Amino acid sequence: MELHISPHRLRIASILKKDIDLFTHSLIKLSLLHQQVSCNFFSFTETCDDFSLITDQEGLKELPSRAELMVQSTVWLALDAIPSFVDADSNSGLTMTTKSIITSLADKNISVYNLSTYQTDFILVKEDEYDDVVTCLSKDFKILKESQDGEMIPIVSQEVDKNSRRNTCGLHTPRPVVHSFHSPDNRFLVTCLQPEQLSHLTSTLLKLMFYSNSFLPSPEDGHERFLSLSIISQKISLVVDVESIALFPSGSLCTGAEEFWRMIKIGNLPLGFDESGIVAQISEPLAEAGIPIYYISTFLNDHTLVSEADIERAFAILESKRGKMIDGNSCEPEDSLHFSIR
Questions:
Q1: Closest by alpha carbon to 113, among 229, 277, 3, 270?
Q2: What is the distance between the alpha carbons of residues 232 and 119, in angstroms, rounded to a whole number?
């Protein structure tokens, strides 16, 4: 597997539900009219709590600079995991190899933010930890970075100080699941759209993005709001619940053999952006059990999508990892913590 470091410098932001009308025009430009702007990396995810965004610097310029737009201060870089020939056509979420990248970074106390799409998995790392990331991964993966003229150039890691914190971390540290998790009743489809279809799906996507309350079941009925739309380098990925599929014209979704997914939401409290290992806590035991997942981090919480056939087994595996002992000390679950950070 190769790792391509995206040239985009990314920011993560959040808009509260009550404030979405202040940003609707800009969000329509970035999603439905994306060919008219210079943004090449944009992700929009609705949760029950907020609208979570990932965008490059050009996309951020399209959004009004207002107090209601909460922009996380870190600049992030995206690692694009290019699958091996064996996995190239699987479209089954995080592969074992991608999981090993996340695990390696967690073992070095490097925090990540993950975005799975229909086409690939993006692992976001902090720009100021770039050298540590390259040093950590270059032993096992070929890493390339896109130059200004579009050429992919191999990256050679530089040796870091022997006393570096990254070099003193033990490998394969046991990781209990320390954050609470639950599974709402929703069933989801992970799919994609062809760019030329956007003009024909404008009303459908507008309804999905901004008016879901008008047709989706109430959260009180066990249904949790979740929609993910990503437009990255002209590739459009969509995670949508089955209640919304009927809005799309026949043949407009790249469904192939329909496979439905269930969601496991991680965290009741905001997870923040500094704690390492949260993605690894979830992806590692599920990958070892042969359960493929899609993993989507948002501003407040994390969400993993598991095949409907695997949801009960996945839930049991994560429950068995909850609050395990490490070096004789009990790891308390999130419910007993006062504050929790990613």
A1: 277
A2: 10
The owner of tokens 């996380």 is 72
Residue in this structure with the two tokens 């390339």, named with its chain if needed:
144
CATH superfamily, domain at 1-342:
VC0802-like (3.30.2130.10)
- CA dist 169 → 62, 110, 153, 290 (Å): 41, 10, 29, 27
Q: What is the DSSP letter of 262?
A: E
Closest-CA residue to 261 (of 235, 238, 236): 238
Q: Give the Cα separation of 243 and 232 in Å (integer).
A: 25
Structure tokens at 4: 């391509």
- Give me the count of residues in the chain: 342
What's the CA gap between 342 and 340, in Å, rounded?
A: 7
Domain boundaries, the chain: 1-342
- The model carries a pTM of 0.87
Q: What is the DSSP letter of 177?
A: B
Tens digits of residue pLDDT in 235-286: 999 999 988 888 888 888 876 556 899 999 998 888 889 888 999 999 999 9
d(CA 301, CA 332): 18
